[in-house]
Specification:
Elements lengths: L1 H13 L5 E5 L2 E6 L4 E21 L4 E20 L3 E7 L5 E13 L13
Organism: Paraglaciecola psychrophila 170
Protein name: DUF3019 domain-containing protein
Length: 122
Amino acid sequence: MACLWASNTYAKDSRLKENELVVTPKRCVALRQGQVCYQQVTFRWYQPDVGNYCLVELSTSENIKCWSNVKTGEVDFDFQSDGSLTYGIRKIDERTTLSSTYITVSWVFKSSKRPKASWKLF
């Protein structure tokens, strides 16, 4: 009985809420600062009303994928960026963002702006 209860709790927690956009994973890690980070991510979204919606990269307003006559959607996406980006769900032909999420880019090593050491004579 305890296993069944735990299973139901997990299923309930994995459902999307109204006006929600989720991305997994939320972080992309590049080796060095300034390098492009490559990551396969999955966007999932839910809206309360059936309609025509687009997943949009908000800084450029570029449509990633659009859906017709739905209230939920999912898409796998090849994320490629040297900086963090924000994505949103919009109705087709509208500029109002209904829900949004972001992917954070971080680095293992920070970029060193120091010039390479030249030979020194002692």
